[in-house]
Amino acid sequence: MPPLSFLRDSPVPDPSPERLAALYAFTRAQATSNPDGYASNVAWWGQVLAAGLQEGTLGDADGSGSAASSRAGSAFKPDLASASSKGPRDTLVLTVDDGLLSRVTQDGRRPKGLGGVVESLASERSLMRLAAYNALTSGVEQGPGLARRALGAGLGLIGGLVWGKGAPAPEETCWKTAQGRWVHVGNVKVSSRPTYEAAATSFAAHLAANPPLHHSDCLFSRATFLETFATTAPEAPLTKRDVDVLLLYLQRDVGSVQIDGDVASPLGLGEGPITEADRGTLSVKSTLAAVEAQIEDIESQSAKTMDKVRSSLKAGQKAGAAAYLKSKKGLDDVLSKRIATGEQLRSVLRSIDDAKSNAEIMSAYELSTSSLASALADPRLSPDRIANTTDALADVLADSKEISDAIEIGGAQARQAAGAPEFDEDELAAELDVLVLEEKTAQKERAEREAREAVARKEAEGKAAAARKVAEEKQKVEEKEKKEREERERAARVAAAQQAIKSSEKVAEKTEGSKMTEEKERAERERLEKESQRLPAE
């Protein structure tokens, strides 16, 4: 069957029509009658919800939509318009409302058991109330205590003893309680599918591949963080609500980002905690971004105004052209001021980065100075110890040389006593020079011989090439003569055939003439016979 209409890439093998119908028809009551089947259905919907969020098809649109309370049991009014809102949808926050039911509708069917699915996923801590997630003081992996208490106020106990005697809560109650906003913990920290990356993992990979070069590059507001990293996390861009969830996870659970109010900075890129100076730097950076946006807008307006000037001149509207030109001059004046302001802000930002870099360099100098001083303080590097060590080394080397000399003298005396021949070093050197000269002469002769052989090969190749060329020319001449001869023979055959045809035509003409003469004579005889027969009768 075709894939689910609300997923671009189905996270699980497409179910059969019968299986899909069952997945849309089951309710919370199946948890008692068929626990294994219910768990399988919940697992399938868990994968579908995770993939739909990551693909940007199931979340609330661009932070808009229903203003659901994130506390269990609170009144909730779904906003069906959120299903058709424009803009990116949440990828880390699942908004459970009627809009979600509309988005997962397949072939006109709505799932009946989605409330129980949300309850089960919450009990597994795959989903966590947004308010409970924000209230955690420790990471989501630090134990179930606080998170379980927060969930227990809403969903954690509904499926069990609240309704007495272990009976599960009705699906209608589960659905009513499940409505609201939930953080999809798996989409934040762990890939739910091999082809997807969790937001935190992707953020770390992007930062490692694109490390900031300057101090100002390490400072982000929540808005600039969204602009910078929105397209680097899941398959769909992050929304403002996603960024709030991700930043909190990176700060509280991972410890890779420090946040102070609206200022965020990746740890390891900045130096120390966020300061007022950092806030000022971020303010300059934000102002520069705003000025650059204004410059682009003014340049666009100026270009459009100039087009109006040209259009007015073509239409002969000189007064209108003058008015538009005056407007353009005003825009150009504002543009020049904005450009000057932008350059001044860039200069300020460069000065801040330069000062920060200089401070880091001085810190490195101080650290290297203390490291070098600590190394030089090693007792082994004291002048007296160095002098004693080098003196001792010199004595040992002198003793070693005396031993080597004594061994050499003793060896010479032993060879002489054994009658070993003595060699004249000068004579050996002269003989070695002769051998070297002979080798050089042999190399020279070998090189000359190889050169002569190369010349001979080249000449032989030239002669062979000339012979091949002569043979080819001869072959061409013979082929040409053969072709001409064949043409002459063919022309002769054609002429003979034509002559034969003409001769046969003449014979045919003569034969035809003879036949006509005979017929005329026969006709004349018949006429004369008739005439002769008529004469006696008269």
Automatic annotation (TrEMBL):
UniProt xrefs under Gene3D superfamilies: 6.10.140.1230
GO biological process, one term: late endosome to vacuole transport via multivesicular body sorting pathway
Biased composition (Low complexity): 60-75
InterPro entries per UniProt: Snf7_fam (IPR005024)
Top-level taxonomic group: Eukaryota
Pfam families on file: Snf7
GO CC annotations on file: cytoplasmic side of plasma membrane; ESCRT III complex; multivesicular body
UniProt feature, compositional bias: Basic and acidic residues: 444-462, 469-492, 503-538
Region (Disordered): 60-87, 444-538
Protein name listed in UniProt: Uncharacterized protein
Originating species: Trichosporon asahii var. asahii (strain ATCC 90039 / CBS 2479 / JCM 2466 / KCTC 7840 / NBRC 103889/ NCYC 2677 / UAMH 7654)
Lineage of origin: Eukaryota, Fungi, Dikarya, Basidiomycota, Agaricomycotina
